[in-house]
Design a protein that fits this description.
SUF_FeS_clus_asmbl_SufBD_sf; alpha/beta; Fe-S cluster assembly protein SufD; Fe-S_cluster_assembly_SufBD; ten-stranded mixed sheet; 2 domains; SufBD_N
Length: 443
């Protein structure tokens, strides 16, 4: 046996090493130079460490010290029964299913009309959509972070939807990203692009699912453009297994009189990082961000949000609730920026957390940077245990301690669900809450 040591490549080295092969695998090559430039920026930046202010509470070593396959096997044996378990009982929904990165029409149901809907890969290959990419692609996701550059260098799989002027899509659309039948740890860089034109309306649900015991790392970038008097809701249902890592980067740009909501429900996955960035580019805009996190064991969920109030007479609302058990770790860092011309801004930010065990912890840091003088801005956070008086009140009425705790925790989290318009989704979240709290609750 040779005494020469075997060099194990770091994830950064794997990314650089595999890029030429990735480019050669593409049918479309018009983004090659942009992809190469993005890879060079990633190479220069490298993965963030705990020395970086934005990642001081979140270590990525567990992710970056593994080896990954960059070319997932396309074959799968997903059954209808397995898919049915992922659905929300949404017979009246549309759904779009990606398995191992590829759009599976036979596992999807698409009845939407009068819209431009394509898989991201197909859109890249279709020259008639080239002008759309020139106008929108990577225009608000260009924050120069390691993960957005990495996604630009490697993105291939994902969802593209353009809703024309005054078109209202009545049915919610559920996007499933499924990984299955992978013998090696697998790396996906998914990309979503949603354009909601003036007066249009759409609701999206997004969920990721790993069916294997091997690890999956998903680096997702979503760009949402909401035009005047339009409404876009994007709901993220994060309830994956313990061999899943998710880095989610979502950017929303709004024009005047628009409403955009991003709800993030984090219940599963070994490590989840949500980077959410709202850009208000007109007056009379409403932006809503809600989150519920319930985790245990040694899971980590990190929410980083930012709202840029750039114009007057706008509102933003952030409400994040966390329940942490075992040795789990939660992070919340919310930023609100108010430009000097953004008078009459109304910004609300709240993060409330309950620790159920001595090993659980939360690092929370709400921040305001205000350069206007006629505003209403508030922020706050709480960290604590269950209210003993309320617990005593319930137990005095014959309710067991376990169920009393669960009822209080359910009520604690419930107000972060109030702006969900999709009843099957609200019911699904309620059921997951009950399962996580290990109690039967009638809905």
């Amino acid at each position: 046996m040779s005494s020469e040591s075997i060099k194990i490549m770091t994830l950064k080295e794997q990314i650089i090493e595999n890029h030429n092969e990735f480019l050669e695998s593409l049918r479309h090559r018009f983004l090659d130079e942009d992809r190469k430039a993005a890879l060079q920026r990633f190479e220069s930046i490298g993965f963030p460490t705990k020395k970086d202010e934005e990642y001081k509470y979140t270590s990525l070593k567990e992710i970056t010290e593994k080896a990954y396959n960059f070319f997932p096997k396309e074959n799968h044996n997903i059954t209808k029964e397995q898919l049915d378990q992922l659905h929300l009982g949404e017979e009246n929904f549309d759904w779009i299913t990606f398995v191992n990165g590829k759009l599976r029409k036979e596992l999807s149901k698409v009845s939407i009309e009068n819209v431009e809907f394509l898989s991201f890969n197909y859109a890249l290959n279709d020259e008639k959509h080239r002008d759309v990419f020139d106008q929108y692609f990577n225009t608000i996701a260009s924050d120069q972070s390691a993960f957005t550059n990495l996604n630009q260098a490697y993105c291939k799989y994902g969802f593209f939807l353009k809703v024309p002027k005054n078109v209202v899509i009545e049915k919610p659309i559920h996007i499933f990203y499924i990984s299955q039948n992978q013998e090696e740890n697998t790396f996906y860089n998914t990309r979503n692009l949603l354009i909601v034109d003036e007066g249009a309306k759409v609701e999206i649900i997004e969920s990721h699912h790993n069916f294997d015991s091997t690890y999956v790392l998903t680096n997702s970038v979503t760009e949402i453009f909401t035009y005047p008097n339009a409404k876009a809701d994007w709901h993220k249902l994060q309830n994956d297994n313990d061999t899943s890592y998710l880095i989610d980067n979502t950017f929303a740009k709004q024009e005047k009189d628009s409403l955009t909501t991003v709800n993030t429900f984090s219940f599963g996955g070994k490590l989840v990082r949500n980077n959410l960035d709202f850009i208000q580019n007109g007056s009379n805009i409403n932006s809503f961000m809600n989150g519920i996190t319930i985790i245990g064991k040694d899971q980590l969920v990190d929410h980083h949000t930012a709202v840029h109030h750039n114009q007057p007479n706008c509102e933003s609302y952030q409400n994040y609730k966390g329940i942490f058990n075992g040795n789990s770790h939660g992070v919340f860092n919310g930023k609100v920026f108010v430009d000097k011309i953004a008078q009459k801004t109304n910004a609300y930010q709240q993060n409330n957390n309950v620790l159920l065990s001595e090993g659980a912890k939360i690092d929370t840091k709400p921040q305001l940077e205000i350069f206007a003088d006629d505003v209403k801005c508030s922020h706050g956070c709480t960290v604590g245990q269950l209210n003993e008086d309320a617990l005593f009140y319930l137990r005095a009425r014959g309710i067991s301690k376990k169920k009393a705790q669960a009822l209080l925790l359910y009520a604690f989290a419930n107000d972060a669900m109030q702006n969900i318009d999709i009843e099957p989704l609200k019911e699904k979240i309620s059921k997951v809450l009950a399962e996580k709290l290990e109690v039967d609750i009638e809905f």
